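Standup notes
- DV: blocked on the single-chain target, sequence here:
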Amino acid sequence: MCGITGLWTPKQTGQRNNAAIVTAMNAALLHRGPDGGDVWVDDATGVALGQRRLAIIDLSDAGKQPMPSADGRYVMVYNGEIYNAEDLRAKLARYNIAWRGHSDSEVILEAFAHWGIAETLKLLIGMFAIVLWDKKLHRMVMVRDRLGIKPLYWTHHDGRFAFASELKALVAGGVCPREVDSGALDNYLRFGYVPSGQSIYRKTRQVRPGHMIEIDAEGQIRDSIYWSMEDVVLNGRNNRWAGDDASAIDALEDLLRDAVERRMVADVPLGAFLSGGIDSSTVVALMQSVASKPVKTYSIGFEDQAFNEAAFAGAVAKHLGTDHTELYVTAQDALDVVPKLADMYDEPFFDSSGIPTALMSSLTRKDVTVALSGDGGDETFGGYNRYLWAKNVARMTDMIPFGASHIASALTVLSPRQWDRVCSVLPVGGKTGTIGDKIHKVAPLLAIRDDIDRYVALLELWDPKTLRPHGRGDEKAPVFHVPGEKFSRNRNLDYISAMQVMDTMMYMVDDVLTKVDRASMAASLEVRVPLIDHRVIEFGWRLPAHLKIHDGTGKIALRRILQKYVPDELINRPKTGFGVPLADWLRGPLRDWAQDLLARSALYEDFGLDRAVVETAMKDHQAGRTNNAHKLWSVLMLSAWQQRWLS
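- DV (later): unblocked, structure below
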C-alpha cells in the first residue's frame, strides 16, 4: 500500500522543476507510505514519478518504486495489492525473467511488458491504482481497480498533467487550481460525497472504477472501460446458478475462503476488524479456518449502548478463538477526531462513521500493518435495512391512489420526538426510540411515484436548488445521474436489484471505500476487503434473489455460511450501523463548535448557500422538531474543509 504522485510537462522547454514539485507532492502523502519515498525523473521528456511506500510484500529495496521494467520500456508507480501475484509469476516463468525480488509490483510490471496492459488487467485480482509511463510511445496510462477500492486523482491543464492518490498532494505541488466545481459541490450537498469522475476542484478529476485513461504527448485523452458493473449484472442474469441452494452456498464459501486466504499473504503482521456483524464475522471465521494460530482481531466499544457492538464482537471472537483486542472509547475520544477530519478527507465528506473507523484504524495499527475488513457485503448480498423498507414504501405508495402528498405532510405534523413518545405507549414491539426519525424520512417519499426516483431521493441530503439557489454556476451543465440509474431503467431491473446496482457503483465507492481508505491510511494501515473481490461480486449476481433477501431478512447466503462457524444466537440480531450519536452531539458537546462553523460568512458567500435555510435547519434540530444531524453535518464538513483547504 502506498501513495503515488507524478507530473508530466511535455510541452515545456528550458529548465523544469518537476523533481522538486513531485518531491513536495510525495511529502504530502507521508501517512500513506512511511517506509520510504523515491522520485524518478526523465528531464528529456518532462516526466517525474513519485511514491511513498508502506512496505507489505518484499520489504527489501527490490520492492521500491518507481520501478522500471526489465526491458526498460515502462516505469510504474502503483498503490494497492495484487493477491494472485504468485500465480502470475508462475505463468511468466516461460519468459526466463531475472526477478529482482518477490514483490507484486514487479509481477504486474513484467506482465504488462510481456502480455500488454489490456490482457494483464483481465488477470489481476486485487485493489490497485496504477500509473505507467511508456517510454516507447511517450504516453501515460492510468488504471483504477474494478470496484474503486484505491483512489486516483488527476488534472490536465496549462500543458501539465499531474496525478496523485489524494488531492492534498496535488495542492502541495501547486498543480491543482483550487477553484470549486459547481456541479461537484451540488452533488456533495445532495449525497454527502463527491462522486467518482468528478472532484471538488474544477480542473481535477478522479479516475472511475474499472477505467483506464491514456494521455499522449499531444494532450489527447482516451478513457476506456476494462470492467463494467453493468456487464456483471447482465452476465449474472444470463448465467444464474443452475444448482440447488446448498451447492450455491458451498461454492460461495469456497470462493470467499479463497478471497480471504489470498488477502492473508503479507511480510508484516496482519489482523482483522471485527464488529460482530455478519460481514466481519464471516471474514474472521474464514480467516481462522485457514490460519495456523489465533487471528488477531480488533473492535471498539462506545459508552452509548445504542452504538456499541463490542459485546457482540467479543462473543464472536471468543467462540472463534481469536486473539482479540477491544478498546472502549469515550465520547471525548471520538470528539477529538472531529478537528482532524478536514485534513484526513481533503475533499468534503460527510459520513460521520469515519470517526469510529479512524479510531479503529489507530487501535489496530499499534499491533499490525494489514487488516482485513468486512466492507462490501451489504451491496452484493442485500444487507442494508433500506432495501427492506424501501420496498415496503413502494407498496404503500401503490396503495395510495391519490392524496399521497397530503398524507406525507400529515405524517410530519408531529416532530420525531413526539412520534417517539406516541409510539412508546403503543404495542408496536421492537425498538421505538428512532421511529420518529424514520417516519420523517419516509413521509416525503410517499409522494414520489417512480421507484428509482424515490430511491435516489432517499439517498439525498439537500436539494441544491433550495440550499444554494444563487450560486449554482452553469445551469446548462449536464444533469447528473446516479451511476447505474439509467441502466436499471433500461434493463427493467427489479427494485432491490436496481438499488444494489446504484449503491455498488456510487455509495460503496464514494462513501464506504473512501471512508475506509482515508481513515486507515491516515494511520498508515492497509485494509483489505475480501467481500469486494471482483470474483465474489460476479458470483453474487448469479445467486437467486431468495439467497440474498427472504422474509424480511438480508444476506441469507452469508448467514448460511456463518452458521457453520458461529451459533445462531450470535448471528440473528438486528443490524446496527457503525456510527456515533451525531444528533445528540450537535445538541450537546459539539453545539458551540457547530455554531461557530455555521456562523462563518465565507461559507455562504463563497458557495452561495442560503443562510436562512441552514440556520432554520439548525434551530429545528436544536429544538427537537426534526433530526437534521446528517444534513447539518454535511454543511459543517463543507465549512471545515473550506477553512482548511481554501483559506
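- Follow-up: The two ends are 31 Å apart (CA to CA).
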